[in-house]
């Protein structure tokens, strides 16, 4: 609980406010939480270091989330693909999950989170992964393959407007736009 | 010219084909760049490099291709004349910005319109998305050949974007940048570029700025700063932020919505308490008479006795004009009372209407198209939930729900026989009769009890304990009815065996509302028709006391409900009957209780101005008690609660029977009823409204206030005005209704069109695949060298049969990014004869165009035929 953790410079704060949907308090809180994840000696330059994925996932907000790996993958800008997060990535994430983010941007990132193989469309494989994340991996809650097949068929029937067997971004956003609960449930607050 | 350019912009197809040509044209020109620029280098870095080169070697400028105007300037030299000098283009290149207003487009098309902008934005985002993705999944096949065209594409998009951002106002620009689905780094780059542009522009125009605009600018900046700090301050005031987060984390959005609703009502009450206290109660303190009744403590529950002579009730307020000093400013209590209450209700009405319409607009955009299977899955995860156990539970619930839903889909074909159907209808009818009957019986009971109570009170006219205890019977009975009849209703709901669990919820809610509203309605009838006509000393105070007791007993019952309904129930559920399990938090019932309490408070405001203060305290206690009870005793609801829609529904309920009913009760009180002769601010008047008429009469004597009199006479008192107003409203409503109908048809048509286009696409793809196969077999001997090169990457990176798959996907994305990925395999496109390159000397290109056209036409015909078939299928 060292109160001497480096402060966020004023101009950086203004810049973050301008570039994200977060308010000043939210950014400061994010900074505090982010530096708490760092070891003591790195607290000084919290804005330049990257936190490895394993440590990011210790955040209580992400720890139990079944999509935690996808969230890290989507928001990390790490060059070597280890899904580590810098402070700015962290802010990006919080901005998308914040209250004031528009539902458009939320659905855009939701699409990327659900797109498990990063190929730009939700195909059957992605949907299967998604359903598995939703129902959990344990034996009794998993769907058997027939159920899964039927479920995915139902989903595609309803949302795949151009009938190409996959859901693309605009189709996804179309589905989301009809479900008003999405914006309130796609939310992570620190 | 400029107009045409914009059209090209709007029409994606045109745009795409054009970019394809440009990209190809450039590929040959700048081969050496492609080797120097590895794809991975950040777009900005390479961009700068390009521009640097552009400065040194004008002939090689890639910039020319980045500017959209360049192709026009090449083909139509007159465009260049439009800008200031023929060399203007080259020099301007340094500022990679199209400067839309100057030469190429009417600013109106760029500036305020959001739609084209967002579309472009999404285009750009798609590009970067694909880029990122490619970097990740190492789809390196395409990299060498398409990197250049792609990065160029990115620059073009970016230049466009920056151009648009520059032409926006500061606020819009910040909003637009925030909305970009980009990483922070990228956003910062864009912002910095935009800033540079702006300073450059303003630098050249600085001479035009005079002192006045600077002053305005400064004022705007300071205003923005002031507003920011104000909003920060309000943000700190946010109540219970952390508590709400914990509740959301453990119980999800559904339960959270109850607490948010509670908080919202609480702010309503705080606001009305502050208004009433400062405009009615404080002046009354000044003119207060001594209170010579004794305080025993029981008054806290009954609200009678000592409180009768306090500012809690209507009867205590004076009808005099309060003035502290002689000839000083005076305060007319009558007007203050009527205007405070009136203005408060007007504010309530507007804020409710606004929040209701807002939430309707957001949540019921397209209710009939909502069938929910896909959206249930795609948007079902509640990212608020952070508790590990809650996550496990939620997953389990979701899994059972999905299984149930699948089972239901399979069961749906099962038809009921006529006899079963009749039995069902009879059961439904019987339970409706039973529930309405209970409501009627409950109302009758309340009515006779209250009349009886009043008679007792009038006869004995004493303030001892006995009569005070008798006063408590009515509220206790009312609360008992409110607490226990809902159990009967939910039992009825179980008995009815609804097919759809949602129907059960809605029917139960409807019955509960009918019960509560009719109890409140019968009480209102009793107050307005019987108490007001009785010869009691001060009937308004009597009504105020009644409401006070109702509110208080309701609060106590709410606490008891928490204790017995949740705590004791949990103990029983975990120890005695384990099969019962831990109780769930019943959101609907709890919200209805809140609406009931708020309705009572609203009715009571007129008769007991400080009632909102009491309700404020009770709501905050309820918040904590419910929170603790929830955390200790309850488990998250098993069913997915459609929070947004239900919240809208509850706000609507708060508006429609509740606030509208209260407004009519208040209106009757103010316009029709005769206020009591010996107490209250309106004593001696024929009706409360007469206070205003009298005030207007006195105003007539003052010069300078004729406008008030005029407004009163011509607007408030004239039937003609209201007639015109309501006619206008009806006309506008009808117009909007028609517009909505038109839009509905439009939506249907568009949907059909999308489906048709999808079919077109599928058809074309199949043709493409077939032709591709045919061409490959045919041209195998002729183009062996080319074949080899293409085959090498096919085999190295992807199995050949994946190719069509890939194509399919790229076709799906309606963004240019996917289209320019095609440039990597020219021979495939050629193979099917798409108009890849109009300028090439290949003889096949002409035939290619016509072939593609023919294909498209055939596809359309096919799709239409299929569509007709579909229609036939639907028709019996």
Automatic annotation (TrEMBL), chain A:
<dbReference type="InterPro" id="IPR002048">
    <property type="entry name" value="EF_hand_dom"/>
</dbReference>
<keyword id="KW-0106">Calcium</keyword>
<dbReference type="InterPro" id="IPR051433">
    <property type="entry name" value="CIBP"/>
</dbReference>
<dbReference type="InterPro" id="IPR018247">
    <property type="entry name" value="EF_Hand_1_Ca_BS"/>
</dbReference>
<dbReference type="GO" id="GO:0007229">
    <property type="term" value="P:integrin-mediated signaling pathway"/>
</dbReference>
<protein>
    <submittedName>
        <fullName>Calcium and integrin-binding protein 1</fullName>
    </submittedName>
</protein>
<feature type="domain" description="EF-hand">
    <location>
        <begin position="147"/>
        <end position="182"/>
    </location>
</feature>
<feature type="domain" description="EF-hand">
    <location>
        <begin position="102"/>
        <end position="137"/>
    </location>
</feature>
<dbReference type="InterPro" id="IPR011992">
    <property type="entry name" value="EF-hand-dom_pair"/>
</dbReference>
<keyword id="KW-0401">Integrin</keyword>
<dbReference type="Pfam" id="PF13499">
    <property type="entry name" value="EF-hand_7"/>
</dbReference>
<keyword id="KW-0460">Magnesium</keyword>
<keyword id="KW-0677">Repeat</keyword>
<keyword id="KW-0479">Metal-binding</keyword>
From TrEMBL, chain B:
<dbReference type="InterPro" id="IPR038900">
    <property type="entry name" value="TMC"/>
</dbReference>
<feature type="compositionally biased region" description="Polar residues">
    <location>
        <begin position="34"/>
        <end position="45"/>
    </location>
</feature>
<keyword id="KW-1133">Transmembrane helix</keyword>
<feature type="region of interest" description="Disordered">
    <location>
        <begin position="776"/>
        <end position="800"/>
    </location>
</feature>
<feature type="transmembrane region" description="Helical">
    <location>
        <begin position="425"/>
        <end position="449"/>
    </location>
</feature>
<feature type="transmembrane region" description="Helical">
    <location>
        <begin position="646"/>
        <end position="671"/>
    </location>
</feature>
<feature type="transmembrane region" description="Helical">
    <location>
        <begin position="600"/>
        <end position="625"/>
    </location>
</feature>
<feature type="domain" description="TMC">
    <location>
        <begin position="538"/>
        <end position="644"/>
    </location>
</feature>
<dbReference type="InterPro" id="IPR012496">
    <property type="entry name" value="TMC_dom"/>
</dbReference>
<feature type="region of interest" description="Disordered">
    <location>
        <begin position="27"/>
        <end position="72"/>
    </location>
</feature>
<feature type="transmembrane region" description="Helical">
    <location>
        <begin position="513"/>
        <end position="532"/>
    </location>
</feature>
<feature type="transmembrane region" description="Helical">
    <location>
        <begin position="469"/>
        <end position="492"/>
    </location>
</feature>
<feature type="transmembrane region" description="Helical">
    <location>
        <begin position="335"/>
        <end position="354"/>
    </location>
</feature>
<keyword id="KW-0472">Membrane</keyword>
<keyword id="KW-0812">Transmembrane</keyword>
<dbReference type="Pfam" id="PF07810">
    <property type="entry name" value="TMC"/>
</dbReference>
<protein>
    <recommendedName>
        <fullName>Transmembrane channel-like protein</fullName>
    </recommendedName>
</protein>
<feature type="compositionally biased region" description="Polar residues">
    <location>
        <begin position="789"/>
        <end position="799"/>
    </location>
</feature>
<feature type="transmembrane region" description="Helical">
    <location>
        <begin position="547"/>
        <end position="564"/>
    </location>
</feature>
<feature type="transmembrane region" description="Helical">
    <location>
        <begin position="255"/>
        <end position="282"/>
    </location>
</feature>
<comment type="similarity">
    <text>Belongs to the TMC family.</text>
</comment>
<feature type="transmembrane region" description="Helical">
    <location>
        <begin position="720"/>
        <end position="737"/>
    </location>
</feature>
């Amino acid at each position: 609980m060292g109160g001497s953790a480096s402060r966020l410079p004023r101009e950086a704060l203004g810049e973050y406010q301008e570039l994200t949907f977060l308010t000043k308090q939210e950014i400061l809180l994010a900074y505090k939480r982010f530096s708490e994840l760092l070891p003591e000696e790195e607290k000084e330059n919290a804005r330049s270091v990257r936190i490895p994925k394993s440590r990011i996932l210790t955040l209580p907000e992400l720890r139990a989330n079944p999509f935690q790996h996808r969230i890290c993958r989507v928001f990390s800008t790490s060059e070597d693909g280890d899904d580590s997060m810098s402070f700015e990535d962290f802010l990006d994430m919080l901005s998308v999950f914040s209250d004031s983010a528009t539902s458009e941007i939320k659905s855009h990132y939701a699409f990327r989170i659900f797109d498990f193989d990063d190929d730009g469309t939700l195909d059957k494989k992605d949907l299967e992964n998604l359903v598995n994340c939703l129902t959990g991996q344990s034996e009794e809650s998993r769907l058997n393959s027939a159920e899964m097949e039927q479920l995915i068929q139902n989903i595609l029937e309803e949302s795949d407007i151009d009938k190409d067997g996959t859901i693309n971004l605009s189709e996804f956003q179309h589905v989301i736009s009809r479900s008003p609960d999405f914006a309130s449930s796609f939310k992570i607050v620190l | 010219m400029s107009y045409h350019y914009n059209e090209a912009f709007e029409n994606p197809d045109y745009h795409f084909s054009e970019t394809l040509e440009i990209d190809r044209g450039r590929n040959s020109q700048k081969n050496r760049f492609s080797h120097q620029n590895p794809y991975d280098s950040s777009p900005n870095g390479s961009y700068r490099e390009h521009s640097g080169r552009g400065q040194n070697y004008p002939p090689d400028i890639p910039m020319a291709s980045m500017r959209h105007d360049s192709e026009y300037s090449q083909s139509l030299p007159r465009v260049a004349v439009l800008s200031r000098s023929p060399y203007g283009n080259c020099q301007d290149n340094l500022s990679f910005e199209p400067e839309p207003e100057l030469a190429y487009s009417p600013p109106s098309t760029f500036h305020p319109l959001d739609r084209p902008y967002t579309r472009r934005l999404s285009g750009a985002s798609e590009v970067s998305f694909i880029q990122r993705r490619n970097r990740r999944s190492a789809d390196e096949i395409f990299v060498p050949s398409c990197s250049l065209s792609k990065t160029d594409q990115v620059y073009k998009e970016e230049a466009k974007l920056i151009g648009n951002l520059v032409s926006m106002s500061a606020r819009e620009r910040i909003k637009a940048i925030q909305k970009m689905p980009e990483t922070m780094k990228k956003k910062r780059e864009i912002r910095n570029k935009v800033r540079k542009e702006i300073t450059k522009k303003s630098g050249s125009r600085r001479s035009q700025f005079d002192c006045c605009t600077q002053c305005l600018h400064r004022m705007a900046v300071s205003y923005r700063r002031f507003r920011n700090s104000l909003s920060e301050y309000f943000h700190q005031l946010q109540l219970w932020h952390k508590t709400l987060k914990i509740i959301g984390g453990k119980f999800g959005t559904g339960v959270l919505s109850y607490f948010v609703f509670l908080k919202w009502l609480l702010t309503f009450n705080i606001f009305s308490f502050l208004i009433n206290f400062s405009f009615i109660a404080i002046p009354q303190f000044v003119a207060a008479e001594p209170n010579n009744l004794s305080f025993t403590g029981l008054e806290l529950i009954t609200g009678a006795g000592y409180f009768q002579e306090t500012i809690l009730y209507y009867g205590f307020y004076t009808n005099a004009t309060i003035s502290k000093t002689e000839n000083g400013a005076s305060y007319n209590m009558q007007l203050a009372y009527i205007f405070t209450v009136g203005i408060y209700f007007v504010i309530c009405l507007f804020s409710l209407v606004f929040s209701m319409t807002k939430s309707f607009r957001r949540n019921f955009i397209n209710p009939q198209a909502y069938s929910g299977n896909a959206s249930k899955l795609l948007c079902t995860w509640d990212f608020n939930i952070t508790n590990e156990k809650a996550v496990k539970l939620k997953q389990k619930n979701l899994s059972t729900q999905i299984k149930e839903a699948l089972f239901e889909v399979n069961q749906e074909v099962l038809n009921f026989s006529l006899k079963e159907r009749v039995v069902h209808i009879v059961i439904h009818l019987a339970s409706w009769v039973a529930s309405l009957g209970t409501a009627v019986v409950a109302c009758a009971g309340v009515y006779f009890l209250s009349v009886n109570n009043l008679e007792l009170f009038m006869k004995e006219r004493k303030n001892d304990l006995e009569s005070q205890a008798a006063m408590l019977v009515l509220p206790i009975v009312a609360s008992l009815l409110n607490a226990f009849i809902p159990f009967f209703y939910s039992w009825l709901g179980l008995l009815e065996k609804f097919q759809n669990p949602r129907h059960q919820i809605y029917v139960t809610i409807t019955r509960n509302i009918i019960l509560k509203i009719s109890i409140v309605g019968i009480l209102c009838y009793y107050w307005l028709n019987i108490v007001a006509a009785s010869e009691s000393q001060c009937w308004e105070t009597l009504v105020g006391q009644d409401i006070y007791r109702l509110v208080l007993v309701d609060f106590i019952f709410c606490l008891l409900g928490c204790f017995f309904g949740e705590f004791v129930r949990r103990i029983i559920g975990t120890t005695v009957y384990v099969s019962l399990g831990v109780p769930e938090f019943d959101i609907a019932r709890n919200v209805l209780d809140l609406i009931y309490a708020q309705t009572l408070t609203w009715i009571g405001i007129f008769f007991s101005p400080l009632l909102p203060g009491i309700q404020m305290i009770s709501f905050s206690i309820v918040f904590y008690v419910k929170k603790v009870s929830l955390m200790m005793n309850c488990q998250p609801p098993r069913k997915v609660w459609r929070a947004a829609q239900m919240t809208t529904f509850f706000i609507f309920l708060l508006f429609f029977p509740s606030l509208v009913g209260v407004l009519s009760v208040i209106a009757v009180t103010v316009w029709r009823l005769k206020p009591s002769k010996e107490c209250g601010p309106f004593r001696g008047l024929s009706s409360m409204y007469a206070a205003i008429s009298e005030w207007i009469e006195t105003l007539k004597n003052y010069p300078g206030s004729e406008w008030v009199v005029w407004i009163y006479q011509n607007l408030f008192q004239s039937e003609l005005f209201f007639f015109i107003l309501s006619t206008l409203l009806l006309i506008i409503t009808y117009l909007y209704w028609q517009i909505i109908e038109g839009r509905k048809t439009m939506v249907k048509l568009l949907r059909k069109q999308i489906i048709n286009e999808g079919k077109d696409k599928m058809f074309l793809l199949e043709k493409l695949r077939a032709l591709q196969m045919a061409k490959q077999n045919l041209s195998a001997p002729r183009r062996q060298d080319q074949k080899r090169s293409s085959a090498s990457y096919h085999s190295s990176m992807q199995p050949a049969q994946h190719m069509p798959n890939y194509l399919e996907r790229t076709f799906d994305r309606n963004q240019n990014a996917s289209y320019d990925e095609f440039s990597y395999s020219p021979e495939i496109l050629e193979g099917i004869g798409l108009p890849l390159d109009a300028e090439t000397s290949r003889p096949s290109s002409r035939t290619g165009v016509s072939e593609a056209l023919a294909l498209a036409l055939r596809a359309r015909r096919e799709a239409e035929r299929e569509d007709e078939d579909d229609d036939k299928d639907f028709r019996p």
